[in-house]
């Protein structure tokens, strides 16, 4: 994951930013909701609707972390 972190300039400071696919995977594993004041499922849908998703990379990462059981059902409803 570290090799795919991008630096984005924000107010004159380079900030490390995860790729959208890694962020989606993280949120799909956690699936936090209103109780945690998070909206992971909604965030995934929004990212999928507004950004190009490298689904092959996302699937490789999902398999690497053996997260298919948790992540696949969510990705099927959040079609990319």
Q: Could you outline the blueprint of secondary structure elements for this entry?
A:
Elements: E1 6-10, E2 13-17, H1 20-30, H2 40-50, H3 55-64, H4 68-77
Helix pairs in contact: 1-2, 1-3
Can you describe what's shown?
The protein contains 4 helices and 2 strands; from the N terminus they run E-E-H-H-H-H. Helix 1 runs antiparallel to helix 2 and helix 1 (20-30) crosses helix 3 (55-64). By secondary structure, the chain is an alpha+beta fold. The protein has a domain at 20-71. The chain is 52% helix and 12% strand. The two termini are 21 Å apart. The radius of gyration is 13 Å and the shape is globular. Strands 1-2 form a two-stranded antiparallel ribbon.
Rg over C-alpha atoms, rounded to the nearest angstrom: 13 Å
Kindly report the spatial arrangement of strands forming the biggest sheet.
1-2
* Helix-strand string: EEHHHH
Intertermini distance: 21 Å
Helix content: 40-55%
Shape: globular
The total beta strand count reads 2
| Low-pLDDT runs | none
Mean pLDDT: 89
* Beta-strand proportion: 5-15%
Number of helices: 4
Decide which structural class fits the backbone: alpha+beta
* Largest beta-sheet details: 2 strands, antiparallel
């Amino acid at each position: 994951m570290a090799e795919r972190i991008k630096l984005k300039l924000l107010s004159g400071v380079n900030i490390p930013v995860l790729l959208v696919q890694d962020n989606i995977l993280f949120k799909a594993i956690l699936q936090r909701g209103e109780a945690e004041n998070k909206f992971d499922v909604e965030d995934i849908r929004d990212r999928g609707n507004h950004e190009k998703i490298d689904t092959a990379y996302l699937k490789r990462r999902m398999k690497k972390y053996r997260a298919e059981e948790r992540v696949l059902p969510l990705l099927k409803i959040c079609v990319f």
